[in-house]
Amino acid sequence: MDRATRLALYRSLVEIRVLEKRAYDLFLQNLVKGTSHLSLGQEAVAAGFAVAMRKDDYTFCTYRGHAHTLARGAPMVGVLGELMGRKCGLMGGKGGSMHLTSVEHGAMGSYAIVGAHLPVAAGAAWSAQVRGTDQVSVCFFGDGTTNIGAFHEALNLAAVWKLPVIFVCENNQYMEYTPIREVTAVANPAADRACAYGLEKILIDGNDADVVHRTARECIGKARDGGGPSLVEALTYRTSGHSRADPGKYRPVGELDDWLKKDPVVLYRVRLVGMGIEENALRDIERAVERAVDEATEAAKACPPSGVEVIEKDVWADGGSSWRN
Amino acid sequence: MAELTYRDAVAAGIAQEMARDESVVFLGEDIGAAGGVFKTTLGLLERFGPRRVRDTPISEQAIIGAAMGAAMTGLRPIAEIMFSDFFAVCWDMIANEIAKTRYMTAGQIALPLVIRTANGYGSRFGAQHSQSVENWAMAIPGLKVVAPSTPLDVKGLLAAAVRDPDPVIFFEHKGLYSTKGEVPDGEIVDRLGTAKVVRQGEDVTIVALAAMVPKSLQAAERLAAEDGISATVVDVRSLVPLDTKTIFEEVRKTGRLYTVEENPRLCGWGAEIASLVAEECFYDLDGPIVRITTPHVPLPAADLLEDNAVPTVDRIVETVRRNAG
After folding, report:
1. CA of A215 to nearest chain B CA: how many angstroms apart?
2. Domain spanning B2-183: CATH 3.40.50.300
3. Running DSSP on this structure, what letter comes out for residue B108?
4. Residue B207: which of B179, B169, B239 has the closest Cα?
5. Residue B103 forms contact with A (CB below 8 Å)
6. Distance CA A211, CA A133 (A)
7. Domain count, chain A
8. Taking the domains of chain B in order of start, what are their residue ranges?
9. Is the ipTM of this complex over 0.90?
10. Each residue of A8-42: pLDDT tens digit?
11. B65·A116 Cβ contact <8 A
């Protein structure tokens, strides 16, 4: 992996980390309403894949989707503005935190019904196959998704049709509040099911950005070459609660501390320094990201809220919502 | 001019659109090699090949999800759900994902797709394969809803649905598949959101949909012969968008409105039309609006029971006779 790629990975990790922390701060200031699901601790999965993807590839993610949307290049002000219900939001306040979408960046939506987007991601891959492009579709989801029907329907269809889609399970150990191992028949909720669809078992350290990136490149390359789908299980941990309403009290004492020792941003920084990348280069990235997030925050705050005139817009392609003549 | 069955008109409509537009693809259970369980799609696989006509596993969520993913990335899919009752197993995909995505993304994502399904009574299949669920679809903002009653309308409205930029739910009536009608040669494209006056009368207006249209026409003939009551019959054809203009015009002419609905009583489409007429045509009415529906029961299987649960010609005649005097 070359220096530019490593720095791009590091920048993506830091962007997600700083932006997610900022999103949390904005809740505390009551500037972000509703719910929000942060990827703190899981940054390496989004960054590792996004850096390996081509601009015209597709990303599908869950309601925990700030990280994935940002990693594909969606503007910070659009992300924060959407969380805050502002006109400058990616969807002008119509979607909110759980539905971040930026089609021009290949971020084809964040889906808030567990499992729903796996068949949709398969469909986008089918479309690429039919149209004869070599685009791939990458679909992120949590460990809890592996126990819902749509997961199995999508995996089977993708395998049978040899679709260029990569299903990426971010196993953060908890489906919501309940540990995934207590409600799942196998130890590795995604990887142990791969064989049911004739797929290779791929179980990786989801906190190691290099490992994720390498896996992403392999799976994406295989999909692009007509080799069909992959199912990846990335082991990770969310260091915040499930959503902003969750203090995470169900965790055994010491578990969080153990995972914080494997913090993906810190780990990667240490590795880069160890490889001889100058402190200054890393500090430049960190400062630039802090500045960008500050500027985006101020821009979003200064942007007016979405006006009520949009309530009845954009149900139909004609821009309206009329159901009668 | 050729005489086609309602069943043949389905394949003819799909073929017309697939021949015209390379981006139209078709997927569903048993639709390809088997030609459809109702033989509505015979010959399409042979003519258009497996790249564009895909047999799927019994995975309704995957079928609808794949259609959605394909529609948002440049294709115009037609998906078949074998029986409309099965909408219940993929209702998340239809009601939560497809219907809401354009709105939630402020128009970033377009979903030009058609979901075809066999709806309605008449096959003695029992309560899980005989329902009329057009009112389910009508209740969800973001879905267009069409239900033709003749072979000509099947072909023309199906073509219009495929060309429409929004998601269209296309309800074929399985009790009508073997009915025949004249269909002119050459390309036929109808317009969504248009009702048709199929019989002009002077005393009462009967508004009906799908299989209830031929029944209402029979009832109108009997009312004319036996009671000297002259009935207008309006075929609604499209529930969303709804042609209130035509319906109101015909109600104003006679001052009496009867809706004939196959759906169970509560929240049937006729209730919406009754409410609109009450609000906007109240002073043109000469008597109460009367709804003729299936009682609020699941449909029974035995022929005598099924035939008498849905509105019969006798029931329509008697209801109008009793109220129209």
Report:
1. 24
2. no
3. S
4. B239
5. yes
6. 27
7. 1
8. 2-183, 196-323
9. yes
10. 999 999 999 999 999 999 999 999 988 889 999 99
11. yes
